[in-house]
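The following block was generated as part of the benchmark described in Methods. Ligand: manganese (II) ion.
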Amino acid sequence: MNPFRFIHAADLHLGSPFKGLADAPEHVRRGLAEAEYAALRRLTEAALELGADFAVFSGDLFDSADRSLRARAALHRAWSRLAGAGVRVFAIHGNHDPLGGGPAMFEWPEGVHVFGADDRAEHRPACRRDGKPAAFVYGISYDRRAVTENLVPRYRPAEGADFHIALLHANVDGDPDHDAYAPCRLSELTGAGFQYWALGHVHGRRVLHEYPHVVYPGNLQGRHPGETGAKGCYLVEVDASGGVRLTFLPLDGVRWLSCRVSIDGLEDEERLLERMEECAVRTASSADGRPVMLEVVLEGRGPLHRRLEDRADELLAALRDRLDGLAAGGGWSGVPAFDGDDVGRNGGSGGEREGESDGNGARGADGVFGADGPSGADGGRGGESDGYGARDGDGVFGAGGPSGAYGGWIWVHRLTIRTAPGLDLDRLAEEDSFAGEVLRLARRLAADPEGREALLREALGPMLRNPRLRRLIESRGLLSADGLLERAATRLAGMLERGEG
Ligand SMILES: [Mn+2]
């Protein structure tokens, strides 16, 4: 068969509103509003730069059925660019943007095929850009929001191609975080005769199976605090013997992340602020140069706990000021300005930051793809390479120049406090409570090695009956470990006191 490569994306959700940003400054709100469009532009650039032969989009192109004009225009522009360059586009609609729900779409350019809501999945030939056959592509669009029947029986591979790609917007194996639309089982997909199931719907990136490949690329841009981490699409390279290689391409314009800071051992808020700032900057420096929407979670226990309870707002404001000061003072290390593509050049906080971006260590002379990136040669079978981020210059993924319009900011959108008071173990051990009883037992056993071992043997009984686990436990000396019980008891007492038990 002819080797080929294609882009697999899903869940663009163009036109998504971002909520809960009332107290965010203008550059943050603007950055978020632009982020999904930036991601789409990057996808187009990536497809062209990487020589994709075609691109597939597995539903939820738009966030809502009413499809804002801007969203429609952006998608039309993106697909026109692809099709105009000979990169054919295949797409289906999902639960957010079912066919027939909403204003008429623009007429798609030649080279774009949107599958209908047919009884049987129709198929279209996908060719390489040199015209040689590559694969058959299949798909069924949602005709209404809630498609509750299994669509898989409606897909059947046709004669005449070596490689079959099925576009399906569905919840595989009952993912509880997403609506149970078009529910189906992984085993049905793997047994259906297709080489690649290009899924959409679940927003987390997942490779559910290899050979045949069953893949959720995740959404293109995180939309809320629960969608953390890099977002983007897959470049799928198929070699002459049918080997499949997936490369994740981070495309997001803004990255949602969270970081955890412990108050353990801290006496004053000044030190806590320092710790939070360090953590925020460290977290942001892992964001491929993206601006960051950050949740900071405070945890641990200690004397600061009592003072935090009614001062969360103040602490959050102080942290924001510190991070703001850093950005204005050019104090970032490892957080380059947003890259220099055409995203909102005319605004944001970028203007005052000119000249401070001195590049980024990760974007060295390795060239576009880095050592592990996609290449013209046949890739290895299977596996995923995340090595795409490294890039020089002003292109799609590069750090770009200092003109990046909304680069380099960190906005702490939420401070979550999960701390607990310091524990007074001696007082607790006197208490007439379950926690007190647990602590007293642990202390008694600390002075009684034989009793301790007997208790542990009883507790670990089921594990000790397994010869391999038993060897492991004994080789680690767990049965005679000093302090193990004390630590466990302290932890349990802490949980009981916080009401987690
Ligand atoms: Mn979706």
